[in-house]
Write a structure and sequence with these properties.
It is a single chain. This protein is of the alpha/beta class. The protein has one domain: Nucleotidyltransferase, domain 5, CATH 3.30.420. The chain contains 4 helices and 5 strands; from the N terminus they run βββαβαβαα. Helix 3 crosses helix 4. It is globular and about 40 Å long.
């Protein structure tokens, strides 16, 4: 069984998480730097991750406004999902991530991680929470 990739797509970084082989747990993998909306800037790194981990599905955080509408960031995630489907021939699932970045921040604050370190791992942590939320729903 292939693994599931979780992505938290920001305007400058993409947080990356991967499931275990059974699809039960999500682990943080890395944070990719990219120049939105230039998909080429992240394509080769994503291709390597997808190949190395035998990814069969990608879950992408879909930031919605609290009232459920989709703003510019949500539209950017939808564009990223289309890119993944077109370039890697993998199903891309958009997952409501309204509370994940805030939840990730809270976990890191409770762990007393310095602001500088938090900034480095927040995207990866959000990707883990997006993917774990998806896995738990199965």
């Amino acid at each position: 069984m292939g693994k599931i990739l979780g992505l938290d797509v920001g305007s400058k970084t993409v947080g990356v998480a991967i499931s275990d082989g059974l699809g039960w747990t999500a682990q943080g993998l890395t944070t990719l730097q990219w120049q939105e909306p230039v998909f080429e800037s992240v394509k080769s790194e994503l291709a390597t991750i997808i190949q190395d981990h035998e990814v069969e599905k990608v879950v992408i955080g879909l930031p919605k406004n609290m009232n459920g509408t989709i703003g510019p960031r949500g539209e950017a995630s939808q564009e990223f999902a289309k890119f993944v489907e077109n370039h890697f021939s993998l199903p891309a699932i958009l997952w409501d991530e309204r509370l994940t970045t805030m939840a990730a921040e809270k976990v890191l604050l409770e762990a007393d991680i310095s602001r500088k370190k938090r900034k480095k791992v927040i995207d990866k942590m959000a990707a883990v929470m997006i993917l774990q939320g998806y896995l738990d729903s199965k």
